[in-house]
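Why does residue order matter? Because the sequence determines the fold. Keep that principle in mind as you read this record.
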Amino acid sequence: MSGAVERVEGMPLVNGALPILTSVSPLDEMVLRVRGGEIEAFDEIMLETEGRVLGLAWRLLGDKEQARDASQEAYLRIFKSLDSYRIGESFMAWVGRITANVCFDYLKKRGHLALDSQTLESIPSPISDQAEIYVLQQQRRELIQKALSILTPAERSALVLRDMEGLSTNETARVLGLKAGTVRTQISSARNKIKNFCQRVLHKSGRSQGGRL
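Structure:
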């Protein structure tokens, strides 16, 4: 019986009583332990989630060093806001929302990534003319990152969460705090921009190579 009490420790009261939980996810259990005063449990949360957080930050920012800085800032916000997380919801979606917001702040300060023309000119001709699929499947990571840099922060976040992180449209909308229709519009716009960008770059590279033959 004591184990059941420990599971709900730190949760808000409902009608003067603790809510009854039939099951709690491992991450939620870690959250409850932190709320109960076991601060060391936050290290376990970080170990469990750092890969996803760092990966999301890198895809949104396009710079590994800034992604590391953003991840550290995200975890500071996560720790400070841990009491606002609602047990039973998707912890990773909640963490993703905070991470995306931190990255938004970085993007607003920095603006779009600068494009390296020498790098772009060195990209070889494509193996397929289906540029959108070619990019979204991450067959050419350098080109993907350059293509992502031309998107607005909102478009970039929606596309990364939906097509690279594998979230559904509704899950992406919840992470970003938007309506599903807005997310669909942003993703459609992002895909068109990436498709046109890749076609221009790869066409330019093909012409450059053709001129050297």
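The chain is about 70% helix and 0% strand.
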